[in-house]
Amino acid sequence: MEKIVLLGYMGCGKSTIAQNLSKITQIPFLDLDICIEKRANLSIKEIFEQHGEIYFRKLEHEMFLELLQSSENAIIGLGGGTPCYANNHLLLQRDDIVSVYLKASIDTLYNRLVHNKSKRPLIANMDEEEMKEFIAKHLFDRSFYYNHAQHKVAVDNRTIDETVQDILDILA
C-alpha cells in the first residue's frame, strides 16, 4: 500500500502536480476536497454555508483518515487548511505514507492566484495588496503545520515536470 500525500497553500500546484504524478506512477489521484463533496453531496462552499467550518473540518479529518486507512494505493491532495486542524499534521509523519509539502513563496502564490481568484472564495473579493497580505499571513500561520511533512519540494521557478521529477526522486 502506497500513500503519497501532497500538501501546501492554495495555488502551490497540488492538483496539477498530483495529476501528472498519477499519470507517470499509475497511482490514482484523490483530491480530498472532491472526496468530501461526494460524501456530503454538497460543494465545499455549501458545506461551509449550511453547516459551518467546524462541521467541515470534522468531515475533512474523517475523510483524510479513511483515505489513509484504505488498502488502495493513492496520491492524496489535501486542502490548503487540512494539516492545520484536528491534528492532521501529525498524520503526515506516519511511516506508511510519504508526505510532501509543495513550498511556494508569497510572490509565486500571488502570481498564480491573482488571475483566477474568482474561483477561490477566500480571496475572490480582495484587491492586490490585501491578497498579498492575506497570503503572507496565512503562510506564516500554516508553516508550522506544513513543515510536518516528511519532505519539502520548492516549486518557485520550477516547471510542473521538474517538480514531478523532484517527487519521483523522493519516491525512488
Topology:
Blueprint: E1 3-7, H1 14-25, E2 29-31, H2 32-40, H3 44-51, H4 53-69, E3 74-77, H5 88-91, E4 97-103, H6 106-113, H7 128-146, E5 151-154, H8 160-171
Parallel strand pairs: 1-3, 1-4, 2-3, 4-5
Helix pairs in contact: 1-8, 2-4, 3-4, 6-7
Pathway: Metabolic intermediate biosynthesis; chorismate biosynthesis; chorismate from D-erythrose 4-phosphate and phosphoenolpyruvate: step 5/7
Binding site for ATP: 11-16, 120, 158
Keywords: Amino-acid biosynthesis, Aromatic amino acid biosynthesis, ATP-binding, Cytoplasm, Kinase, Magnesium, Metal-binding, Nucleotide-binding, Transferase
User: Proportion of β residues?
Assistant: 5-15%
User: What's the number of helices?
Assistant: 8
**Main beta sheet strand tally, sense and closure:** 5 strands, parallel
User: What string gives the helices and strands in order?
Assistant: EHEHHHEHEHHEH
What is the highest CATH level, the class? Alpha Beta
What CATH calls the topology is Rossmann fold
Show unreliable segments.
none
What distance separates the N and C termini? Answer: 15 Å
GO biological process, one term: amino acid biosynthetic process
EC number: 2.7.1.71
Organism: Flavobacterium johnsoniae (strain ATCC 17061 / DSM 2064 / JCM 8514 / BCRC 14874 / CCUG 350202 / NBRC 14942 / NCIMB 11054 / UW101) (Cytophaga johnsonae)
Keywords: Amino-acid biosynthesis, Aromatic amino acid biosynthesis, ATP-binding, Cytoplasm, Kinase, Magnesium, Metal-binding, Nucleotide-binding, Transferase
